Predict the structure.
Amino acid sequence: MSRDILFKTENFVFSYRVAGILVKNEKVLLQRPINNTDYSIPGGHVSLGETNQESLIREFKEEIGVIIEVNKLKWIGEIFFPWGLKQCHQISLFYSISLIDEVCIPLDGTFYDIETEGAKLVFEWVELKKLNKIELYPTNVKKFLMRNSDDIEHFIYSEEEEGVIGER
């Protein structure tokens, strides 16, 4: 059994996460908890002993039953946010990805994860031109998605329960 790189202390949480940027037909695939409107780029925690690529492939297979190809590292995020009553420090690596078999998931609309105990996540294709109308975290990724640069981007994002403190 693998163990996520997710460590908790009395006051802090450290999280190491990878995410897959999947863009098709001018739409990006996003995820959100089933009872929430805050979106994020799909992915999950890296497990001890796993490479970033292995983690991303595993997460997409577990959550939506697709096999992906991990392409290029796009963004490196140092992300600070509340995790319950603790402060979380997350290192997140964002990769461009592609589907090996495009018939495995709908390429439009909304669908749910394949959790055996019931769906926990909603996956949705969102038009790139409509990103400004949704809550997407970290908020920096909206501008990166629109810019679509070939350069590797680094960002720092910090928020408190009251909202964004700032970007650097």
User: Anything to note?
Assistant: Residues 6-167 form a domain with the Nucleoside Triphosphate Pyrophosphohydrolase fold (CATH 3.90.79.10). The mean pLDDT is 89. Helices lie at 52-64, 140-147. The two ends are 38 Å apart (CA to CA).
